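can u pls check wat happens w/ zinc ion
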Amino acid sequence: MAVAGSSRTLLVDCPACARKTEYSPTNRWRPFCSERCKRIDLGAWASEQYRIAGAPLDPTDPAEASPEPHPSSKSMH
Ligand SMILES: [Zn+2]
């Protein structure tokens, strides 16, 4: 029997609790099974694994974001 395969649900293991969860557009927390698991995983990732040597790239970096016009000193000589 050949399955059309259009409505097959893809199941993945939740990275946080290893439960089978639906990996589908209806699951907004995919690949996690719930918001809770997503937060758990993100928290662990941020506190344990996400170690950076320098400062994180901030989109609102003052050095980059604000175009400070360089005061050009006119030489009146
Ligand atoms: Zn989970």
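The domain at 11-50 is CATH 3.30.50.10 (Erythroid Transcription Factor GATA-1; Chain A).
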